[in-house]
Write a structure and sequence with these properties.
Blueprint lengths: L2 H22 L5 H26 L7 H14 L2 H9 L6 H21 L3 E4 L2 E4 L3 H24 L7 H13 L1 H6 L3 H55 L6 H18 L9 H10 L12 H4 L7 H22 L5 H13 L20 H16 L10 H10 L7 H9 L1 H5 L1
Antiparallel strand pairs: 1-2
Helix pairs in contact: 1-2, 1-9, 2-3, 2-4, 2-9, 3-5, 4-6, 6-7, 7-9, 10-11, 10-15, 13-14, 14-15, 15-16
């Protein structure tokens, strides 16, 4: 097997691989696939035509069909830049491509008739006196057109890998040398490689941009959720005159407790980055059910009656319902359930004596168990209409005493290990 046969087979196999990938790839539109297929099929055709004309045994009787085949080849080659520009997203009408091909075909046909670009005679193939002008000018123009369009397309993307563009252009330009100075069919391997690199490069840009679009949309959704939570939390504070900065402080406490618990090896299977992020973002909704509590109870300066206390207790169960109604459809189901668990179960107690369902132990969601400690600790440390704030040491002792009764003992242990941070 000769060297040129190996070059030809390698070129064809490379184009076949690209064609199969395009056909099976779902990331491009039907139009883009058409452009890519036209490009790769054209490279395969030109390489095959070159090989047949120059590497198969020549007979003078084959001069006419070889001339026709070479005219078609020389007419298609300049189209590669146009076809690949279309594949890269530069919009072209079919009439433009047809007109470009028609001009190239007419020029090559006239040149072949008069032997200006090439001829097949009794001795075989030879170049004509105007080969570089007729054949080279179309190809140089096509390549310059493709280079321009590659940079135009690169500017559309957020990530601009100029080194990759430069590498592809070097290979493209390197293809001119064997076309102009050596056996032309050597160049088709360079063209095939550069076409494949262009395809891979563009495919990578599309995927990177798609990922960045997804991340941007996720950030926008997160920002919208944060603003929504902040708005509802402000609504709660505007009605509950006693809370003051309760929501802000408890938000800090839940994050601190969750992060320190993970550091101490407690519930590490649940305390993922996403869990802590959701907990921090959604903790301000823990008292959202209070928007359904009448003002006469919510803002009463003195001690509540048993009936009023029962009405106040309903804010937990009501909070779960409100969260689901408000957030449903605006975020994912996991976030809705997370917020619902915080609002509904943060008054449950480890020993099962809490409300609204009397859940016990680890049947209480972890987010609610963390919220419970933060909520009570802040209430102890804050001034209320019915009490003065407790000293820090006293508040810590109350949390310690309630381990295993009100609070998760493991979380209390974490709280005590880091009590200075909670008191600061």
């Amino acid at each position: 097997m000769t060297f040129f046969t190996c070059v030809f087979l390698l070129t064809e196999l490379l184009m076949l691989a690209m064609i199969l990938h395009v056909v099976g790839y779902s990331g491009f539109s039907r139009g883009q696939k058409t452009w890519y297929l036209a490009t790769f099929l054209s490279v395969a055709f030109c390489a095959a035509a070159e090989y047949i004309a120059l590497e198969t045994p020549y007979q003078p009787s084959r001069a006419l069909p070889l001339t026709v085949l070479t005219v078609l080849q020389f007419s298609v080659v300049p189209l590669l830049g146009v076809l690949f520009s279309g594949a890269l997203g530069i919009h072209h009408r079919g009439r433009f491509v047809a007109a470009f091909f028609a001009v190239s075909l007419l020029t090559e046909t006239v040149a072949a008739i008069f032997g200006w670009a090439f001829r097949f005679d009794d001795a075989g193939y030879s170049r004509g006196p105007l080969f570089f002008l007729v054949y080279g000018s179309f190809n140089v123009a096509s390549m310059l057109y493709l280079i321009r369009n590659m940079f135009l397309v690169g500017r559309r993307f957020r990530r601009k890998d100029t080194r990759t563009i430069a590498m592809v252009l070097v290979i493209l330009i390197a293809g001119i040398v064997p076309m102009a100075a050596f056996r032309v069919n050597i160049a088709y391997l360079a063209v095939a490689i550069s076409a494949s690199l262009c395809y891979i490069y563009y495919n990578d840009l599309v995927q990177q941009d798609s990922q960045e679009d997804l991340l941007l949309k996720q950030r926008r959704i997160t920002d919208m959720q944060t603003q929504m939570v902040s708005g509802m939390a402000n609504l709660i504070e505007s009605r509950d005159l006693e809370t003051g900065q309760h929501i802000a402080r408890t938000g800090r406490y839940v994050r601190l407790l969750a992060e320190r618990a993970r550091e101490d090896g407690v519930y590490t299977d649940q305390l993922t980055d996403r869990f802590i992020s959701l907990l921090t973002m959604l903790a301000p909704l823990h008292d959202i059910g209070k928007i359904l509590v009448p003002d006469r109870i919510l803002q009463k300066p003195g001690k509540l009656t048993p009936e009023e206390y029962e009405a106040m207790k309903r804010h937990a169960a009501d909070g779960g319902k409100v969260v689901r109604k408000v957030m449903f459809g605006l975020t994912d189901e996991d976030s809705v359930c997370f917020a619902e668990d915080i609002a509904k179960f943060h008054h449950e107690r480890w020993d099962g004596s809490g409300y609204p369902e009397g859940r016990k132990g680890e049947k209480i969601p972890l987010c609610a168990r963390i919220m419970a400690i933060a909520d009570v600790f802040d209430a102890l440390m804050s001034e209320r209409c019915y009490k003065e704030p407790y000293p820090g040491a006293k508040a810590v002792e109350i949390i310690r005493a309630e381990a295993g009764r009100h609070f998760d003992p493991e979380l209390v242990r974490v709280f005590l290990n880091h009590k200075e941070e909670f008191l600061s």
